[in-house]
Design brief:
Elements lengths: L1 H14 L4 H8 L4 E2 L2 H6 L13 E4 L3 H14 L3 E4 L16 E4 L6 E5 L4 E4 L5 H9 L3 E2 L12 H7 L6 H4 L6 E7 L5 E5 L11 H5 L8 E8 L1 E2 L3 E9 L2 H13 L6 E5 L1 H11 L9 E9 L1 H17 L4 E5 L2 H12 L1 H6 L4 E5 L8 H15 L3 E6 L4 E8 L4 H20 L18 H4 L2 H14 L12
Helix pairs in contact: 9-11, 9-14, 14-15
Bound molecules: flavin-adenine dinucleotide (FAD).
């Protein structure tokens, strides 16, 4: 009886992907799998959507990716590229099944060239490992998503990832000079190169960066490196409320200082941190600001002094400063604990990465409070205030159906307001599946059609990451 059901399951499993033996022959048996555990491990990311692929290919080279895509385009099988699976929007979820191309085995740093100021990498190099490797050569790769200990450069490129340092240094796009990409039909192409300037034709590098795996699979990247700043300093300040903190940020900029990071957190977030680490974890006050400066020591000291004066005159009730590595890291620890502290409340958090024009930061904090009053759900805000990219976390009780049901309406109101201010529904994470519902509101019909036209030109059979926003 047991044997019958096992063989029935086996037959069902095989009929689910009759093309699999041919795929395994095309890419090599050691690189293709239909093991149930492996399919499950490639079904989801850090968002909650999940869908099993029919097969996983562990590509080891550009030609493995090319062979897979050639195979898939002939048979019209969906293909979804996967990096580390840290995404927050279900981007690498193979929502139409088919093949997941895991890049995990393509993890070599091929070159670090201090003279040209570039690194050439395969897509599965972990962001923090690249940063550490170039640091040893006195170089700096600035993009710093909070997931940098796990996420891959390929995933960062596909989502145009950002982080706190983007205020001064910009997002991933600013560091991608050249790409090798395999197109949907299996042809590898190279766009861009290893020079800072390159105005040959359209900006195809920019087209692929942030395209969330819908236009091609990145198999190699040439990245721009900077000289590593020799010094840094951090200021950690508390304000009576978020409006005062927003005004203080403007006062810092008005003095001609551009910090490398400027982060603000609101009352709900601070209270969550105080509950977790004790009341003394954050001095009294309803808003927290963290600023970082980097560069030559004299410049850092001057920027720090100047900013401190701006914070004091804007009503900061407490300011701590650090200019040695250990103490700087200690001050960052509090900021890094905000997200885990919100999770520790026991509520579920929907982390939205909206971005508003910088002058709207104080308005955004006030609007989040008004949402709390209107819907009775906490909305915790913290993040990259210097560039307007605030993580707006809608907190709800997953055990309470009414509370969970309200989250959609909170997000509708939030996104409508952000768009009305000239902001965007995503600054870092992308659209993926999570924000698909709001895609039609975010861009005009003609611009969405242009996306569809570009997609059709590069992927006429629609096999690359189907079911997402295009
Ligand atoms: C704790 C945590 C903190 C985070 N903090 C930040 C943050 O500060 N800033 C930020 O920007 N993001 C952040 N994220 C989101 C996430 O880490 C980034 O989106 C990251 O860039 C995803 O990389 P990944 O390798 O995990 O990609 P995946 O999740 O595997 O894939 C993401 C998308 O990229 C596509 N893709 C992956 N590799 C390739 C490739 N080689 N070619 C083409 N397409 C590809 C996938 O199809 C998918 O659409 C965070 C996530 C977590 C879990």
């Amino acid at each position: 009886m047991k044997r019958t059901s096992t063989s029935a399951q086996k037959r069902a499993h095989q009929s689910n992907a009759p093309w699999f033996p041919a795929l395994a022959r095309a890419v090599g048996k050691d690189r293709a799998s239909r093991e149930p555990g492996i399919l499950d491990a490639h079904a989801g990311d850090s968002w909650f959507a999940s869908h099993r692929p029919q097969a996983v290919v562990f590509a080891e080279s550009t030609s493995d990716v090319a062979r897979t895509l050639r195979f898939a385009s002939l048979r019209k099988v969906p293909v979804t590229a996967r990096g580390a699976g840290c995404g927050y929007v279900g981007g690498c979820v193979p929502s139409r099944g088919g093949i997941v191309v895991s890049t995990a085995r393509m993890n070599r740093i091929l070159e670090i060239d201090p003279a040209d100021g570039v690194a050439v990498v395969e897509p599965a190099v972990i962001t923090a490992q690249l940063q550490a490797a170039v640091r040893e050569r006195g170089l700096f790769y600035p993009p710093d998503p909070a997931s940098l200990d796990e996420c891959f450069i390929g995933g960062n490129i596909a989502t145009n990832a950002g982080g706190p340092r983007c205020l001064k240094y910009g997002v991933t796009r600013q560091y991608v000079l050249g790409l090798e990409v395999v197109l949907a039909d299996g042809s590898p192409i190279r766009v861009g190169g290893r020079t800072l300037k390159n105005k040959t034709g359209y900006d195809l590098v920019g087209l692929f960066v942030g395209s969330e795996g819908t236009l091609g699979i990145v198999t190699q990247a040439t990245l721009r490196l900077l000289p590593h700043p020799p010094a840094r300093a951090v200021l950690s300040a508390v304000f009576p409320d978020a409006r005062a903190a927003g005004a203080a940020a403007m006062a810092v900029f008005a003095r001609g200082v551009l910090p490398s990071a400027l982060e603000i957190a609101d009352r709900f977030t601070l209270d969550a941190a105080r509950r977790r680490f004790g009341a003394g974890a954050v001095p009294p006050g309803d808003a927290h600001m963290l600023l970082q400066f980097d560069g030559l020591p004299e410049a850092v000291a001057a920027e720090c002094r100047c900013s401190r004066a701006a914070l004091e005159s804007s009503g900061a009730t407490s300011i701590e400063s650090a200019d040695d590595e250990e103490r700087c890291e200690q001050l960052w620890t509090l900021r890094r604990e905000f997200s885990p502290s919100l999770k520790a409340t026991g509520l579920k958090k929907l982390n939205e990465d909206i971005v508003v024009p910088r002058g709207r930061i104080a308005d955004l904090f006030a609007f989040a409070e008004s949402l709390q009053q209107r819907y009775g759900l906490a909305v915790a805000c913290f993040g990259h205030a210097g560039d307007g990219n605030i993580h707006t976390n809608v907190m709800y009780d997953p055990g309470d159906e009414r509370s969970a049901a309200k989250t959609g309406r909170v997000l509708d109101d939030l996104f409508d307001r952000v768009l009305a201010w000239g902001g965007a529904i995503t600054g870092e994470h992308g659209i993926g599946l999570a924000k698909k519902r709001w895609w039609p509101r975010a861009l005009s019909p003609r611009v969405r059609r242009l996306h569809a036209e570009l997609k059709a030109a590069l992927d006429p059979s629609g096999i690359l990451n189907p079911g997402k926003f295009v």
